[in-house]
């Protein structure tokens, strides 16, 4: 097996008695699989937490982290010269993995099923390529940048039932789900503010989804940080970039489809653009949880060099940066009250997995007289492209109906905050509510 990802971090796993059953083949990848020792916390059907959304919905063991590990072990221990990643039982087990990262936090051993699944997808993509639907979701934002007229086609598809029906028949994109419509004008970086002793620099990562679909989230973040005294510098391609006309991208959509080499190429572009910030110790602030946390996590598995360790220490979600700076006495922007306004906050799965909910609550608590409540819900069920896939659309909404959507209906007049792009889509489709990014709410409370 020639792994697509770097699994060397697991080289010493399995040395002690706590680990058992390392598969016969797969090298360090097999050791990462064997991190699971059958604790079965992933097979809980109640209680707080995210892990494991598909098991909570179906109650079937194969749709838990443990069930997927057993399927992986079966193929890694199989006979024959090649590892059979086409095994139908493995495909069935992986089908409902949402890549939520809940297992990495909530499993006592920290099994990273999302990353294990990425290797599985990469091995299959290497052998079979991608279906048109997978290519659409993997390259969608890149295509929008190259061919802006695609936005008109998306809007037509959403308004013409026949077009949506044909999309479901030909591509497998759920006709009942509206595709996200790109903004008429994508985000354009303002002139960079000059850094001074009073205005320390901040590097802002504007991800592809924010850039093309919700550019006002980036503008809100820039306004809040600028008002607080920071010189915001929007990241642009580095000098010498082979494709300087193309916006930077973390590579999340590509990695989620198993296109590891393409994701690695995008990650290298981003790390090159960040080289001055890394060298200077400048904080890197992001808006989309799944993109920002990729800099802290998956970049270690892409073999990008020593700068990734430094970058991981400098990367913050917007509200993480605000909470940290406020605690250090450097963020002094005084917000006006949103007196008596009820705010429900839904956390993205990756926010919950990486401990991002407490900073989010602390940042929003800077707004006086805010009636703030964190919604105790697991995965919203959208999970990137998952909720758009015809065979998964109904399951996606069932996941949202488990906890999230009833909580929103119980507070019909509340403002809803959700930092995840997919989460905001699910809330819009399932509850007919428009959720906002934390930066947008904080801008509204500015003097």
Automatic annotation (TrEMBL):
GO terms for molecular function: 4 iron, 4 sulfur cluster binding; metal ion binding; oxidoreductase activity. The keyword 4Fe-4S applies. SUPFAM superfamilies: alpha-helical ferredoxin. The keyword Iron-sulfur applies. Residues 343-426 form the Cysteine-rich domain. It comes from the Bacteria. It holds the Pfam family CCG. Keywords: 4Fe-4S, Iron, Iron-sulfur, Metal-binding, Repeat. Residues 34-111 form the 4Fe-4S ferredoxin-type domain. This is (Fe-S)-binding protein.
């Amino acid at each position: 097996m020639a792994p697509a990802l770097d699994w060397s971090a697991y080289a010493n796993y399995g040395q002690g008695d706590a680990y058992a059953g390392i598969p016969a083949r797969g090298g360090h990848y097999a050791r990462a699989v064997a991190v699971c020792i059958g604790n079965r916390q992933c097979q809980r059907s109640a209680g707080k937490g995210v892990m494991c959304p598909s098991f909570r919905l179906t109650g079937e063991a194969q749709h838990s982290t443990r069930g997927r590990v057993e399927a992986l072990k079966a193929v890694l221990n199989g006979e024959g010269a090649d590892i059979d990643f086409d095994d139908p039982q493995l495909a069935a087990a992986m089908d409902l993995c949402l890549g939520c990262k809940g297992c990495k936090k909530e499993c006592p051993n920290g099994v990273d099923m999302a990353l294990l699944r990425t290797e599985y997808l990469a091995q299959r993509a290497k052998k079979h390529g991608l279906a048109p639907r997978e290519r659409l979701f993997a390259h969608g934002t890149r295509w929008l940048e190259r061919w802006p007229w695609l936005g008109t086609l998306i809007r037509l598809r959403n308004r013409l039932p026949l077009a949506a029906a044909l999309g479901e028949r030909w591509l497998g994109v759920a006709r009942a789900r509206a595709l996200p419509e790109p903004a008429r004008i994508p985000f354009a970086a303002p002139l960079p503010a000059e850094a001074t002793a009073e205005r320390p620099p901040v590097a802002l990562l504007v991800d592809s989804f924010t850039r093309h679909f919700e550019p006002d989230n980036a503008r809100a973040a820039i306004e809040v940080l600028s008002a607080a005294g920071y010189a915001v510098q929007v990241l642009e391609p580095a000098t010498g970039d082979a494709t300087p006309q193309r916006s930077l991208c973390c590579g999340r959509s590509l990695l989620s489809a198993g296109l590891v080499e393409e994701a690695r190429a995008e990650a290298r572009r981003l790390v090159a653009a960040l080289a001055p910030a890394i060298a200077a110790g400048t904080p890197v602030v992001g808006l989309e949880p799944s993109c920002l946390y990729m800099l802290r996590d998956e970049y270690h598995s892409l073999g990008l060099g020593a700068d990734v360790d430094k970058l991981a220490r400098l990367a913050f979600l917007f509200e993480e940066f605000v909470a940290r700076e406020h605690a250090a006495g450097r963020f002094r922007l005084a917000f006006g009250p949103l007196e008596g306004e009820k705010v429900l906050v839904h956390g993205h799965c990756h926010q919950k997995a990486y401990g991002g909910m407490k900073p989010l609550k602390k940042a929003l608590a800077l707004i006086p007289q805010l009636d703030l409540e964190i919604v105790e819900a697991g995965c919203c069920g959208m999970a990137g492209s998952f909720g758009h896939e015809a065979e998964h659309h109904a399951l996606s909404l069932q996941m949202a109906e488990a906890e999230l959507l009833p909580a929103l209906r119980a507070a019909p007049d509340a403002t809803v905050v959700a930092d995840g792009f997919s989460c905001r889509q699910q809330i819009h489709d399932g509850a007919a509510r428009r959720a906002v990014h934390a930066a947008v709410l904080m801008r509204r409370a500015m003097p």
